[in-house]
Amino acid sequence: MNRFFLLLIPVAFAQCRPAIPEEVPLPTKICVRTQHHTVPIPNAIVYLKYNADSFPGYDQTPSYFDASFYTGADARGCIESVPEGKHWLVAFGYDSLYFPHYVYGSLNTEISLKYKPELDTILYISE
Questions:
Q1: For residues 32 and 71, what is the distance between their CA atoms, to the nearest angstrom?
Q2: What angle do CA 59, 61, 63 make, to 5 degrees?
Q3: Under 8 Å between Cβ of 49 and 65
Q4: How far apart are the C-alpha atoms of 123 and 45, rounded to whole Å?
Q5: Model pLDDT for residues 79-89, shown as the tens digit of each residue
Q6: pLDDT digits (tens, 9 = 90+) for 39-96
Q7: CA distance 119 to 107
Q8: In contact, 47 and 65? CB cutoff 8 Å
Q9: Is the pTM value of this prediction over 0.85?
Q10: In 3-state terms, what secondary structure has residue 8?
Q11: How many helices (H) and strands (E) does the chain have?
């Protein structure tokens, strides 16, 4: 009987441990300010294509991209836990001051945990 209890003790402790997380968030981040000429463009959508060697183009469907985020009323937006590698950002917005009103732009960047874990920049968009 005593041996039975000795065998149950490790099993009981193993059941009390917290679950192992399925994903570990990376300490990486991309922040952009969308801007057309000198005018901030709020509420723009920014798509990301991870590990892309070439420009993905402006005519891809949203499902083609790996992630997306919107800029806020101040034209700034961020996305966290970006994987390491070379990525393309493609942005679409609306500028009521210039014609044509729909504007777009792109930026390629590289994220590295060791050398460049964060990016904070202006993403210029135009007609």
A1: 8
A2: 150
A3: yes
A4: 11
A5: 999 999 999 99
A6: 999 999 999 999 999 999 999 999 999 999 999 999 999 999 999 999 999 999 999 8
A7: 12
A8: yes
A9: no
A10: helix
A11: 1, 8
